[in-house]
Fold each of these.
Amino acid sequence: MTSRSRLWTDDGGQDLIEYALLAALISVCSIVAIGALGLAIDNYYKTSVEAKIP
């Protein structure tokens, strides 16, 4: 078997790469979700405080 065909059939490190990509995707989604949640909470408190101030 040539080295090129071995390269295409060898899947030794595939699992590690898949887990790393999955972890990166979860991290990015978490950062976006926490940022959106922070803005929503900020707007909620701003409107509730402004409503109570005469």
Amino acid sequence: MVYMVVSALLFILVTFFLKKNNLIPVLYNSRKNLNLPPVVKSWPLVGPLYMLAKDPVNLIKKNYQKHGSVFTIKVLGRSVTLLIGPEVSRHFYTALDSEISQEELYKFSIPMFGPNVFFGAPMEIRQQQYLFLLQGLRPLMLRSYVNQIVAESQDYFSRWKYCGTVDIVQELDHLTTLTTARCLLGREVRANLNEEVSALIHNIAGGAHPIGMFFPYLPLPSHIRRDRARNKLNLIFKNIINSRKTSPQLEVDLLQTLLESRYKNGESNTNEQIIGILVVALFAGKFTTANTAIWTGAYLLQHKTYFSKALDEQMALLGRHGQEIDFDILTEMDVLHRCIKEAARIGSLLQYEFK
């Protein structure tokens, strides 16, 4: 009798826990008569968890071929509906937050960037932080970044041998990390961007995988590395911020903008908020720029005609303006600009976007 009572109690507790954490589907669905997308058949609860962690692109491709542009997979009881292709993805970008919530899912970024930063902050604070970030990307600032990008690129490529084989993904990814750090985060951050810091940034980014999107606090090895890297990076950035605060020299970069910015209530950013926004800027600038550069380089190497046209255009401009490159000269590189736009159109800057 005692065993029956204990077993029943355990069953009730387990059911309550699963229900509270949305790990089992509701028993009643008031929308059962709606024309819902097909659901991929899989093991109960676990679902396609293994494939989602190991090879999400192949999982999506396989089910796209079987079910079409819209289908749903179950991940630990949560329904994940995928929209593939421009003919069905419009609603993803135009729907109201009340219909498709970005905030709810992007809370996975809190352990990456810290509390009180963007999706870890109230909407009013988040909107002001977006404005702080945009101030660091205003046209006047972008013009000043060109010289820094050119200097970083020339120094980086000067270490290449005259001929040989390189991994273009790895090389351009590393270069954009350096240029993003120098332009957005400041010379002090760039000066401290050694292999250790690059590894820390890589480990923080490692927490943004499909499972981590839904369960960012699971004690996975990638999450443990993420948290340790975040703590170490905090110490490095904290010393840089404190040094900048006591320096009489004013720099033209995002770090200086964040130090001088004030919220509507008159408060300034805390060190933790500054660090979080800097890391966000590093990720946002690094990944989109790196992926754009990688796709552009890959397609130009595949299409020698356009590669030659882009190269001839640059040689002509350098012959006319000299070896110095500034913002205005870059705007004259029409062939290269069109190549970049086309590479971004047919390539994928991001594998997937979530809401």
Amino acid sequence: MYFKRSTNIDILGQSSEQELSPDRQFCAAIVDFPTPKRKRIEEHYTPKAKKLKLQLQRSSRNLQNKRAQISKLKQRLRFSKKYSSIENILNLQKFASNSSKVLTKMQFKTKRRAWTTDEKKFALTFYYKSPAAYRFLRSQKVILPGITTIKRWIGTSKFKPEIISGARAAVTENDLRIWFADLEAYLNEENATDILNNPDRIFNADETEVQLCPKTGKVLGPKQCKNFYDIAVGQEKESTTVLANFSASGKITPPCIVYPYKRIPRDVVASIPNYFTIIGRSDTGWMVGPTFFEYVANSFHKWLLENNIELRILFLLDGHTSHINPELADFCREKRILIYCLLASATHIIQPCDVEVFRSLKCS
């Protein structure tokens, strides 16, 4: 169908009076054709196409739901990440000993993580006790440091071991926790838990042996000489017992020296400083019950009153027989001094005098 072009409009460069060719008339008709209104054309699908379209819509909705669930799971994972670590899971479990916990933790070790101090101690102890058992467990795919690693640790370690008895070596962490729990229960029974809040009211006393002829250090000498000697002033292995007493806040009470004399010579008494208020004596030079009682009654209790220390106080002692006797117990009960013995065979771990003071003195 062709439309008649208006004569007053020039199309495609032709004058309005000339006749147009069929092609130009077709182009002119397209230009003059009115724009139709857009109407929504109804889509006609086959039954198979409709079924596929429904499946696509359903899959799209499922995909959106899955994405929402994944987002929620990621949020929960970030929130609970700190509660899902191996360390926290192991802390929630109950182990028979600390060694069993360390061995279990070692089974989750990755290549990037270095061995911890506890793991090194466990591996070295285990290898020292039984190298054959250590190799057997490694052959059974139990994760343990390699034999070469153990030998490298042994070769590069520079430790000075402390010689202890079998009873001291058998003390476990659980034994220490039980002792601290018993101490807290004892203070609750005595209504004296406020002592733990004041370090000035917690004391620990113990004796140590001081060598009168200590070992000398290194000396310079010619290479030709193989042996060097230092002449001792007195007996080579002579020693003296010193009783020291400290508070948890760091205050020092007057110490006590025990001499192996029946009668202490005057020159020895004159050479002792004034802050040594008590000079003890015994047949062997070691601490005995009467000497310790004299120290507590005439020196320690007097010092507490002079320094305005609030009574009652907690007095921690080891279970030596010189520290435990009926006269001392009655005196301390009367003077509001609570005596509590440290865990047997564990003073090398929890006694402040041994761990901090005497060790620093003897290693210097």
